[in-house]
Amino acid sequence: MNAAPLSVDAIRDCLEGSVPSAMATCAPDGTPNVTYTSQVEYVDEHHVALSFQFFNKTRENILLNPRATVEVTHPRSGACYRLSLMYLRTECEGRIFERMKAKLAGIASHTGMAGVFKLRGADIYRVLSIEAVPGAALPLLAPRRNLLAALRSATTRIAACADLEALFSASLTALVSDFDLRHAMFLAHDAADNLLYTVASRGYPESGIGSEIAIGDGVIGVAAEVRTPIRIAHLTEEYSYHRAVRETAREAGLAFAQREIPFPGLPHPHSQLAVPIVAGPRLLGVIYLESPDESRFGYDDEDALVAFAAQIAAQMLLLGDAEEPAIEAEPPVVAQPSDTTPLTVRHYAEDHSVFLDDDYLIKGVAGAILWKLLGDHQETGRTQFTNRELRLDAGLRLPDIADNLEARLILLTRRLAERSSDIAIERCGRGRFVLTLRRSVTLINVPRPGMAA
Fold first, then answer.
1. What domain count does the chain have?
2. Close Cβ partners of 134 (under 8 Å, ≥ 6 residues apart)
3. Residue 441: which of 423, 415, 453 has the closest Cα?
């Protein structure tokens, strides 16, 4: 009885790029050519993409005779498979191209070919047939985690969350406890400034809460830009993040100019996976994972985490769009400021950056929120505020999405908890919070250049 034909799904682990793949083409006159290709990328159960890097004999043959044969190898068992392919087109942008570009950067750095391996395009092929190459193969070890069970446990955790702050924490707990991922971050999307900012992290000496990544920058920014997971199996400088060094600026007397929060990532990650959190056309954030080990994340990990990110997106929409009840819980007792030396709070109107004495705290929308709260408190003595009034304040430049405000409040709350013992924001019910000052403050506003104070 003949065995069922193999599908691309069945041999997907062979497409990780750990073992170079041999590619055979033929010129119109019948002259064969065999070379190695850097990448054979999974597209779907009927298609793969091969990296187009050079204008060489292989490229010439394919454009004249669009048939090819590629042999791929399983990185752990050594089993080999021969794919018969038909060339369809070349893509020079989009999800597949960006995914392959990122992976190629990792392969190039790993092999010392960073200046040579440059992706010109992603050649899309239809898979006509797959056959197993005769030969012995090693038995495969059981996976380190049952990913379906991990996904079930993770989604159960986030389904129980009643607010975004709990959701951020529960998502990272699930990544660590259920998926056994030790270095993880949750970044939210700021639609107003079109960037990503860290709202929670696990596995780092410093949390990096508030650190920012531009859309299109590194593996995180690219994943956000093209709305597709980006996975890299080898160390690459092209997709690394260089953390800001606060001490250098302070020693140079530039403390007030240093307005960046250091990114908390590993200095030399050998595996990276960024999964966008998307709801329809809206980008809500990115889950970022990294490891000091090479090839830590495979296709199955990627699939499970894409499904998890979809559940997070649905929960973010549910919690962000929830109505704030009219009746709120009683606020906690607020400690009165002591008579010690006042805390100097400087606000730079140019980017809403806020410094507590000489220590940078936050900027952007979160900085504008804190400045408003402190200003209202100094003018009227208020300590109780609501999300609703902030949302209606045109000066804060909030987009028309509720979760952006909630995420910014969470960011501000966590930054204050980390950086100051004198100012705190405490919830006292859904959509209501209290500003706590344990020390009197002196407010100094630095206007934009060319504007009066």
1. 3
2. none
3. 423
In a domain, 3, yes or no: no
DSSP code of residue 151: H
Provide φ and ψ at 4, rounded to 5°. Answer: -65, 145
Q: Within a domain: residue 415?
A: yes
Distance between CA atoms of residues 210 and 207, nearest Å: 9
Distance, in Å, from the CA atom of 414 to the CA atom of 165, rounded to the nearest integer, reads 10
Gap between the Cα atoms of 199 and 143, Å rounded = 31
Tokens representing residue 138 in the block:
């090693």
Rounded to 5 degrees, what are φ and ψ at 430?
A: -60, 125
Output the pLDDT for position 243.
44
- Give the integer Cα–Cα distance in Å for 103 and 56: 22
Residue range of the domain that includes 118: 9-132
The tokens describing 298, both together, are 């495979």
Residue 331 lies in a domain: no
Q: How far is CA 447 from CA 136, 357, 370, 434, 452, in A?
A: 73, 17, 16, 27, 7
In angstroms, the CA 279 to CA 188 distance is 13
Pick from 139, 146, 126: nearest CA to 7: 126
Give the separation between CA 439 and CA 336, rounded to whole angstroms: 8
Q: What is the pLDDT of residues 22-37, one digit of tens each?
A: 999 999 999 999 998 8
pLDDT at 373 over 50: yes
